[in-house]
Amino acid sequence: MQKKESELIDQAVNGDKKVLESLLLSVQDMIYNLSLRMLGSPQDAEDAVQEIMIKIITQLSTFRKESTFSTWAYRVATNYLINCKKSMFAQRPLSFEFYGQDINMGVVPNTEDLLQGVEEEILADELKASCTNVMLQCLDPESRCIYVLGLMFKADSRVCGEILGLTAEAYRQRLSRIRKKVAAFLGEYCGLSGTGKCNCQKRVGYAILTHRLNPGNLEYRSLEKLDHSTTAEFTEAMEEMDRLSSVFTQLPQYRSPLDAKSFLNKLLKSDSMDVIRTES
């Protein structure tokens, strides 16, 4: 850890609210994107970011500075997300077998009544963003985290191992096995891979009919996207991406809807903050 970052951590622990806010802002977007991929829905992700931010604040004094702050924050986030039971998909787990069967049966005509005046292409883009995140829910939480960190965030295997408590080699081996499993499903079912049978545009009507897509509430379209240069500041290239996995690497990263400054101000002024300080 650089001396400057170490000093900032000390200042935040000693009660400097502006420094604490700056530290939170430095990681909140990537924590939101990690939460979105891990939990599968924007609302669950936003709720998770708030919970994770509280954990970062209350555990900051225990940070031993043996890694960068961002790596430590990711570790706090992954521990929470792997064990999170509050999300929709934690309550209703998916499998690749179920998802494949759903794709096989899920096509209905995209009628005007179903589209509700929204362009078919816009709805197809929304479905693509939703479907790819939902598809990840077919993996168990730890495997999902390994895949997301390595192939979607392109994080270095040593850093990923450090976050998950694995050696770099153990992490690479597990990532390789998970990648093959996901690639097999993508190759058979996902049209974005170039070989799969599914087509986002053709699935729009079925998604609306089954209440998986709401033309009146396009959650992903309302999110602000991060540009690639901003995303690159957080991660390092890991290894050559295979063709099928690029379905996920091409997805946009989003800016967290959470207003960290407002959230922090409300938290520090709340009655519950005394309890949080006591627990920390």
Automatic annotation (TrEMBL):
UniProt entry tagged with the keyword Acetylation: no
Keyword annotations: Sigma factor, Transcription, Transcription regulation
Claim: Transcription regulation is one of the keywords in the record: yes
InterPro entries: RNA_pol_sigma-70-like (IPR039425), RNA_pol_sigma-70_dom (IPR014284), RNA_pol_sigma70_r2 (IPR007627)
Domain RNA polymerase sigma-70 region: 26-83
Pfam families: Sigma70_r2
NCBIfam families for the chain: sigma70-ECF (TIGR02937)
Protein name per Swiss-Prot or TrEMBL: RNA polymerase sigma factor
Organism: Faecalicatena faecalis
